[in-house]
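Bug #2210: token dump truncated for 1-acyl-sn-glycerol-3-phosphate acyltransferase?
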Amino acid sequence: MDVVWMLPLLLLFPLLMWTSSTFLFYFKKFFYVAWMMLLALLGIPVCLLKSGGRDVENMRVIRAMVRHVKYFFGLRIEVSGWEHLQTVGPYVIISNHQSSLDVLGMMEILPDRCTTIAKKELVYAGTVGLICWLSGIVFINRKKTSDAKSVMADAAKTMLDQQIRLWVFPEGTRNQNGDLLPFKKGAFHLAVQAQVPIVPVVFSSYNSFYLRKEKQFNSGTIKLKILPKIETKGMTSEDVSSLSDLSHSLMRTAFLEISDSVPQSNGPLKH
Ligand SMILES: CCCCCC/C=C\CCCCCCCCCC(=O)SCCNC(=O)CCNC(=O)[C@H](O)C(C)(C)COP(=O)(O)OP(=O)(O)OC[C@H]1O[C@@H](n2cnc3c(N)ncnc32)[C@H](O)[C@@H]1OP(=O)(O)O
Ligand SMILES: CCCCCCCC/C=C\CCCCCCCC(=O)OC[C@@H](O)COP(=O)(O)O
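Reproduced locally. Full output below:
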């Protein structure tokens, strides 16, 4: 073929490759949301038949229905530290939060009678919002700290009255900067108010397979490390800051240990 014709083809090829991986990124994200919406639609009547309304037991339905989703995306989830979840009674799980994909890891290890704290906007997310409400998810308004605090104080009582475990994302928002954000205090006040242990859980960095800015979503491995529980018996609100600092430092060490050293999106945060 004439070299003049080869040139545009050679230029077109990387463009096609780029668009195809970008296309795949959007397609996979769209499929993820659509599939979760559909699963939730199917799960809602199951929840209603099982428990007749809002009940933490409905989390079992979500857990069972979400487990296969990782296979669509070629994701392996490797869990270590199972023994640290074998604690009787209520506790607070804290974990880092990178993306809505965290739900896949959560559902691999979610203990019985465990629900979560989420931003109130999630309740409006169609069928997903409804199934979250049915599963006892506690919604907080992050813009109104005083409201969020009183909802969490109520949650501390409910945890004890109904023997419920709560999963909180202490970074308070999604974060994929290759490090942990500083922690908000809610999870630690909650654990101290209820006098229950904290079980830290760390998700390895998704930057090796999922890059939001670069529009990359490949297959890969998520390592989930469950750390030993931290007791809060006898602690008061005075101890919350040091409890938060200790948890942050333990989780950050584990995060760096289990995450592949790959080029980071924005570079690690300095603390
Ligand atoms: C069938 C198939 C279905 C398919 C679909 C399935 C779908 C889903 C399945 C379920 C899974 C759902 C997963 C959902 C994930 C959603 C995750 C999120 O939404 S993350 C965002 C929401 N979560 C959080 O924000 C929690 C963490 N935030 C906090 O803890 C914050 O502290 C706060 C929101 C309570 C307050 O915010 P802010 O004011 O910015 O925070 P601080 O700086 O920490 O606090 C200011 C001062 O207030 C004190 N404080 C904080 N909390 C309390 C408290 N509870 N009691 C008393 N005092 C409190 C704090 O100490 C600070 O004071 P200081 O003097 O500076 O110490
Ligand atoms: C306004 C609607 C809220 C968005 C939800 C979109 C629809 C989601 C549908 C299917 C996805 C599967 C389950 C996802 C559940 C997890 C939701 C989530 O991860 O919310 C983000 C929140 O933790 C932090 O939000 P910001 O990073 O502060 O923003």
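Output looks complete on our side. The mean pLDDT is 93. Marking as cannot-reproduce; reopen if the truncation happens again.
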